[in-house]
Amino acid sequence: MSHEFSENIDAFDLWKSDIGRTLSRFRLWLRRNELFNEDIDSRLFKLQESLKSEYLTLAFVGEFSRGKTELINSLFFADYGQRILPSEAGRTTMCPTELFYDRKEARPYLRLLPIETRLESTTLSEYRDMPSQWTEVPLMTGSAQEMTYALHTITQTKEVSLEEAKNLGFTDDILEKLMGEDNKVEIPAWRHALVSFPHDLLKRGLCILDTPGLNALGSEPELTLKLLPQAQAIVFLLGADTGVTASDMAIWENYIQNLERDNSLGTFAVLNKIDTLWDELSSRKKVDKAVTRMINTTARQLQIETKQVLPVSAQKALVAKVRNDKSMLIRSQITELEHLLSVSLLENKEHIIWESVIKDAKSLVEEATQLLTNKSDQLYVQKGELQSLTGDNKQRITQLVSENERDLKEFEHRLIAIKPSQRLLERQTQILLSVIGARVLSKEVEVTLNELVNSKTTIGLFRHMRQFFIAVKTIMKELTREAELTNKMAVSLYDKFTNDFGMQLLEPKLFPAKRLGRDLEQIIKNSERLNNSIFTTFTEHSLAVKRFFSGTVTDVMSFFKSTRQELISWTQNVIHPLTQQLRMQQKLITDHRNELAELTKSRANLDGKIKGLSRLIDEIEMERQTATELIDSFEAKKPGKEKSNIVRISSAGR
């Protein structure tokens, strides 16, 4: 891998570490200002864990024999002096393969999921938590030759009958190509491969997804619906010798094009094998013109910009790196691809972390800062009262004590008065939870799964899934309707608090029901997007369709489980600023009353109390400045419109 790619990954690590340090500083700041509690500790812990567990996912997609695995070898494993992943001529990557480093187990391994698991409705996600279902092959990373031999296991095949192959989800057009003697067909032995490998970049969070020809290996919809959308960059491999074929276009239109539009992924079409265009009898200029024409044609066919189409020779790049042939390396054009991949990968991940971690952390700091601002305002008032006690004015002290007692009683009265509004909001959130309760959803899922099991035709399966989608959309609409009412209650409660207690709060963070509704629509949309091709492909093989729909049902259930967790968290967090502010206000009033009570006995320490309040106000101002620095630190991580923070960091180091 190029120095620049590694350098940008280093910069990304530093960028994440800086966010982690800022979160730790905020935790200490909260403790110092007596604002720390279990709720906020739980939120900070989740943010920090999310930051640690983030992976950078790079997916390689394309038809058979386009050189996906060879490109991975040349990009990441050339330092071993040979091909680590099997990429000889012919079919090599027989099943989707994930290369990463397992941080939990912290050891190398190769795990293979047997192809026979396609006969079950269990999803790939569920199988990940069933280690006993996988075949594990020892991975000796100390020897490149031993490792290559072990990884070659991924290419294993087996012969089965035509009927068995159909039951496993292989279609007639595929089986024709795989047909051997005695009506036996040769199919992949494995459904999925997980490779935990202590490569430097993998240990730092890079995950590589190597896929077989999506148009040729049977149906594995979870690959399209889950694994590919999780990627921050997708490399779509084409052959420079063939251009965009009909099967290439089918893959692009069915699996990649919509992902690019929906998720703003970094997507690149790589014209591999440009060395097939090299002609010793033609000038370099003439060859370059031919490559340029192919780039323009490819961009027009795929409806993307020409800068997203990159010519490369993965094989020549690998040879050049192994032999340290700089001239060949330049001609392979691999370095430009490395540059664009590193920038795109990290910029997209930067956006994800901003949305999932930094914005929430920034919001926490802003809430806490507002609490300190209100405390400072109250202390200024109390300081002014003490400063008004000039001379021997016992009557004024008595008056202040009386006013303070009245303030405390009025505060307690308002505290009681606001309780019904709080309880009303709490009851409304319980209604929200009941709308998407596990029991309600389990009933819908149970009905759907029973219908899927009992359905005799593919048409029947599609009809039952449409009914399921209608049911969950109805549930989501009800949740959105109730959430709008809940959000109005939250705003009303905050307004009442401000009016009754005379203290400012930030606007309440509303429950994002509409955004969640769009997320559910996207899950359904992605599923329906594959329906036509699946219906055409599997008209006679409802088992594959059942597996696909079972996976979709699981995805919908996971969505609602996540929504419930988000709702529970929101319920706790929306009330938290109010209760924290009320506790602080009550303590300030009570402490001030006690100070005034002491002054009725002796005024000897009046100046000391005024100075003490002044020091406290100054300290709060310093703490507010620290909070502003924390906010600025988070704001500085906001993804730039033109250029990634990470790339700027990396460039600054050169």
Automatic annotation (TrEMBL):
Give start and end of each Dynamin N-terminal domain: 58-273
- According to its UniProt record, what is one Pfam family this protein matches? Dynamin_N
Protein name from the UniProt record:
GTPase
Organism of derivation: Aliikangiella coralliicola
Q: Which residues form a coiled coil?
A: 358-414, 582-637
Keyword set, alphabetical order: Coiled coil
Q: What PANTHER family does the entry give? A: SARCALUMENIN (PTHR43681:SF1), TRANSMEMBRANE GTPASE FZO (PTHR43681)
